[in-house]
Amino acid sequence: MSTRRHFMSQSAAAASAMAFPLVGGAQAKTVKVGVLHPVTGALAYSGQQCREGAMMAIEDINKAGGIKSLGGAKIEALLGDAQSQPQAGAAEIEKMNEAGVSAVVGAFASAICLATTQAAAKYNLPHIVDVGVADQIVERGLKNTFRFGPGYKKCAETAVANLHVLNTSAGKPAKTVMIIHEESLFGSGTAALLARELPGYGYEVKEIVKHANPTRDFNNIVLRMKAINPDIVIPANYYNEYALLVRTMQQQKVTPKAIYSVLGGAASSYKFVKEFPDAANGIIDCNHWFNPKDKRAQDLKKRVEAKGLFFSYELFMTYTSMWLLADALERAKSMDRAAIIDALEKSTFADHIMPYGATKFVNGQNQGAQPLMTQVLNKDIKVIIPRDYREADPLFPLKA
Question: Residue 264: its pLDDT value, please?
Answer without folding.
Answer: 87
